[in-house]
């Protein structure tokens, strides 16, 4: 099965900047809220990994989630948007389903999706067709991918039970609350985050020559 959860998104065919943001019906479900509460510490951990790997993406996601607090239309007695534990604006739970080759609509090119492969005993593979790469997608694997840019797919697999938590950011939601797209990561960003100023300068010089 597949379930999409979001604290703020546009209703279908109502995606103009002046249209209101609404919470998904699944977000207010009691069982979903219980699950999100149980996942909050884990989501904070994944937020921290995102901050280390893609700082500008983390800042953009954090800013957008902060902004939607006061700009989302919520029904009476609905769950507050402030309880959302992730810096990503949406979460898709995919259980025991293959995913055909596709690119993700609704993202910005520089928005990374965070895919977390979970389950028991499966031997799934994440295929990135544009790179001709097949990656190990066994339980416990985390993958950041520019899903708008790179065509990708998953499955089939032979053994076990598989589910994936696919974290994503909606470009139009970010636009609605005035948050700019983050820049693409480059090699110099990683070198800088590792604290190697000398290597950082060399990488910058090489990029200028190119």
TrEMBL record:
Gene3D superfamilies per the UniProt record, alphabetical: 3.60.130.30
InterPro entries reported in the protein's UniProt record: 2OGFeDO_JBP1/TET_oxygenase_dom
GO molecular function: dioxygenase activity; metal ion binding
2OGFeDO JBP1/TET oxygenase domain: residues covered: 17-170
Keywords: Dioxygenase, Iron, Metal-binding, Oxidoreductase
Cofactor: Fe(2+)
Pfam families per the UniProt record, alphabetical: Tet_JBP (PF12851)
Name this polypeptide is given: 2OGFeDO JBP1/TET oxygenase domain-containing protein
